[in-house]
Amino acid sequence: MCLSLVSGLTIVLTELNTSAWSKDSSNIQEVTLKVDGMTCSMCSLIIKTALKWLDGVVDADVSYEDKEAKVRYGDGKVTVDDIVKTIESSGNYKATLLSKERK
Predict the structure, then answer these.
(1) Which of 2, 59, 72, 90 is the most exposed place for a label (fewest CB within 10 A)?
(2) In 3-state terms, what secondary structure has residue 54?
(3) 3-state class of 28 per DSSP?
(4) Under a CB-based contact definition with an 8 Å cutoff, are residues 13 and 53 in contact?
């Protein structure tokens, strides 16, 4: 029940956030963060869903296996600190910036 609800939210939120930024991709940034504290694949789903709720996030790919999150976001709309805080407030996680680039 919980998994299908979270999955459904992820799908809806992906469509909402992607459509908002699809017209102007000139200000899109991508960060890769190391995420410590994930203990199962559900952790990655929880983090991804929380990131999708963050205004300005275009897409998020969170890997439990790699212990990483790749987040595409609108520059000026959200900051790396906002992304880190969102990840860390989603559970007992610690997020550390690995790289940042303009897309």
Answers:
(1) 2
(2) coil
(3) strand
(4) yes
